[in-house]
Amino acid sequence: MLRLYFFISLMCLVRSDTDETCSSFTRLGFHSAVVGTGLRVKLLLYTKRDPTCAQLINSTALGNLNVTKKTTFIIHGFRPTGSPPVWIGDLVEGLLFVEDMNVIVVDWNRGATTILYNHAADKCRKVATVLKKFIDHMLAKGASLDDIYMIGVSLGAHISGFVGEAYNGKLGRITGLDPAGPLFNGKPPEDRLDPSDAQFVDVIHSDIDALGYKEPLGNIDFYPNGGLDQPGCPKTIFGGMQYFKCDHQKSVFLYLSSLRENCTVTAYPCDSYRDYRNGKCVSCGIPQKESCPLLGYYADNWKDYLTEKDPPMTKAYFDTAEEKPFCIYHYFVDIITWNKNIRRGSITIRLKDKAGTTTESKIDHEPATFQKYHQVSLLARFSQDLDKVAAISLVFSTGSVVGPRYKLRILRMKLRSLTHPERPQLCRYDLVLMENIETVFQPILCPKLQL
């Protein structure tokens, strides 16, 4: 039995067609973080041919790297415990799933592993210098800067920026996944990632109030859930280490969802998260022929459109569900009331299909104002997409614990899908909502507009 275990372990380390062993990401412990680590950069190459077996390469030995193909560098950030990032394997696999390319994991764990964050941050430019030397060798062998793509996580985002700056912004693309904020906030463009570091720079900000960078850094900057508290992450310190790193890491998992999941996360260019939540930006501000920007790998679909802008930059907002695949499905709920007096409050809407599946949206981020004969358009966000809605329920609430219970008299309610605008719009007329009491009804098809 022991011999069998040894044989299986050995096979996992050896490539199927050669005697070369598979290289692995440097694994260190907390002891290394306490005493500190000197910088050492390892480059681990993965290809379609060997998607799970890394080849160690360097600036004088490119190994199996095909310089005629796209090359994507993955650059991690600060590692206070010395362990490998839990997402590395999934990111490599996902990238190779969507495209036949070279994927190079930049392992600078010896250097990033320290309990002193500033020591790791100080090594960013040195890592960039190593990568510059390697890319120079690639270019000498026939590679093109257009085909270089860098995905940098936290400190890795700024390392990517330093590499891009060294090539005067001619790298094909940089994606920054929650670029590090501490020690970089307020720094000039040459000391951090910025839009001029590549032909296209996209950034996901998921922890702007703690470990991440708040201000825009790219051609398009995505702010999931406003860039603050991410759904599914612990809200208190009792969540342990996840409380400190979950929001920061969510940018990586959102990017991963764009590679393998069965839904695409759509974002909405907007001046603020509040305007997005209030439904002011759902048209994307572009002609109907253009789709809204997509988060993650396919964000560069907006490259040509953005380069026409002056400056070629935009911020985009969206919300996510707590769990994979993270997609949120948007609807507008248009309500015309006939109350004599103004009513202010929130609306909860629940949808149900014939199979009994339900999904709910609470529109309570700020009180809506309902006035007589005025249409209020509320942006509803659902975690499930129901193809055919059989029943709808509404709950109106003023949020008052004591005092009178109000009625909201609805002249017309209309539900229209933004995710699938081709679907028929659903209506209901003459409703009276008693405060905090659920009203269930079957919708009817809205009449088509007469041209």
- Cα gyration radius (Å): 25 Å
Q: Which CATH class of the largest domain is shown?
A: Alpha Beta
Kindly report the average pLDDT value. 90
Summarize the amount of helix as a percent range.
10-25%
User: Which architecture name of the largest domain does CATH use?
Assistant: 3-Layer(aba) Sandwich
Order of helices and strands: HHEEEHEHHHEHEEEHEHHEEEEEEEEEE
DSSP E strands, number: 19
What is the CATH homologous superfamily assignment of the largest domain? Alpha/Beta hydrolase fold, catalytic domain
Signal peptide: 1-18
Protein name: Lipase domain-containing protein
Domain Lipase: 39-326
InterPro entries: AB_hydrolase_fold, Lipase, Lipase_LIPH, Lipase_N, TAG_lipase
Task: Describe the SSE topology.
Blueprint: H1 2-13, H2 30-35, E1 40-46, E2 55-57, E3 71-75, H3 88-98, E4 102-108, H4 109-112, H5 117-121, H6 124-140, E5 148-153, H7 155-166, E6 173-177, E7 201-204, E8 220-224, H8 241-260, E9 268-269, H9 273-277, H10 303-307, E10 314-318, E11 329-337, E12 343-352, E13 358-370, E14 375-382, E15 391-397, E16 407-417, E17 426-434, E18 439-441, E19 444-445
Parallel strand pairs: 3-4, 3-5, 5-6, 6-7, 7-8, 8-10
Antiparallel strand pairs: 1-2, 1-4, 9-10, 11-14, 11-16, 12-13, 12-15, 15-18, 16-17, 17-19
Helix pairs in contact: 6-7
